[in-house]
TrEMBL record:
UniProt xrefs under PANTHER family: PHOSPHO-2-DEHYDRO-3-DEOXYHEPTONATE ALDOLASE DAHP SYNTHETASE, PHOSPHO-2-DEHYDRO-3-DEOXYHEPTONATE ALDOLASE, TYROSINE-INHIBITED
Function according to Swiss-Prot or TrEMBL: Stereospecific condensation of phosphoenolpyruvate (PEP) and D-erythrose-4-phosphate (E4P) giving rise to 3-deoxy-D-arabino-heptulosonate-7-phosphate (DAHP).
One of the protein's GO biological processes: chorismate biosynthetic process
Catalytic reaction annotation: D-erythrose 4-phosphate + phosphoenolpyruvate + H2O = 7-phospho-2-dehydro-3-deoxy-D-arabino-heptonate + phosphate
Alphabetic keyword roster: Amino-acid biosynthesis, Aromatic amino acid biosynthesis, Transferase
Protein name: Phospho-2-dehydro-3-deoxyheptonate aldolase
Organism: Chromatocurvus halotolerans
MF annotations from Gene Ontology: 3-deoxy-7-phosphoheptulonate synthase activity; identical protein binding
Family according to the record: Belongs to the class-I DAHP synthase family.
Source organism, top-level taxon: Bacteria
InterPro entries found in the cross-reference section: Aldolase_TIM, DAHP1/KDSA, DAHP_synth_1
Enzyme class: transferase
GO cellular component terms given for this protein: cytoplasm
Keyword flag Amino-acid biosynthesis: yes
Amino acid sequence: MSDSTDDIRILRAQPLITPWVLAGELPCSESVSASVAAGRRQIEEVMTRRDSRLLVIVGPCSVHDPAALLEFAQRLRDHCDTLSDALLPVLRVYFEKPRSVVGWKGLINDPDLDGSYRINQGLRQARKLLLDVAAMGLPAASEFLDTTFGQYYADLVSFGAIGARTVESQVHRELASGLSMPVGFKNGTTGDIDVAVDAIRSAAHSHWFPSLTKEGTPAILQSTGNPHGYLILRGGRDGPNYHAEAVRNAAARLAKADLPPSLIVDCSHGNSSKDPQRQAQVVADLCDQIEQGQPALRGLMLESHLVGGNQPAGTLGELRYGQSITDACLSLDDTLPLLDQLAAAVRRARAD
């Protein structure tokens, strides 16, 4: 019998590409960097009310087919060109999928959708996709689940998110304190917003935390603190929290914590009871609040893909093109009229 105590449940290890090497393979040009930085500034201006537009973060639950996402991005951008006076569109580009138990973990972890876990390939695909999106002039939003993956592509992200399952995590709050873009913090899975408010406050402070350098060396990093942390209302087990009273209460809670009373509503997840069609009902309610002059409502999120609904995960060649393999989404054809409604509400609110 062996008395070994080290790594007794690790089967094997593979080399991981470093962020520096990946950035050398897929560099960020000056024009792309300028596009990402402009997206960050515009989002900050909307969330701090210096820009009267509404932030709309739209896209699939998660990315499994880069080609389909790029087609979605092109159509979204083209449609929003006529709405740019009222809406600031941001593409939802989520590479990681948190799992309650097991399942497909996202493009980075398993890009071939077959359990092969070619993570180096997934990181390459993720960075290439963000470069292509930025070249379109479209800001990208992404959730940071793994606390090291951000070093590989965070320079191409204009809006970061901390999810409902990780909002209470100290390491994710520390990570957010050092991210270079504005970050949204979702309320907890129960619907509790206090954990998100606490996360915003924590991330605004400087922290020391272990991570990787761009060269792939383990290091202890010190952050400056992130002054652009915002609450995302996503509903929860206790019910939806997008209605006018919930938005007022959330704004009051932010103000009580000496935080800007500006927030984003996620039209999916707990606010739609995971029924993608109900996102339209949420949008209709938010349009009413916008027209009634609710100043705290600065943005929203929609889960949408080329084809509505979802399908079981499988190899890419067997899947229906443009349909989610994680949470069910609203079709893009059904989403674009909702953006028109939101733009009209913003314009009417300005006229009043």
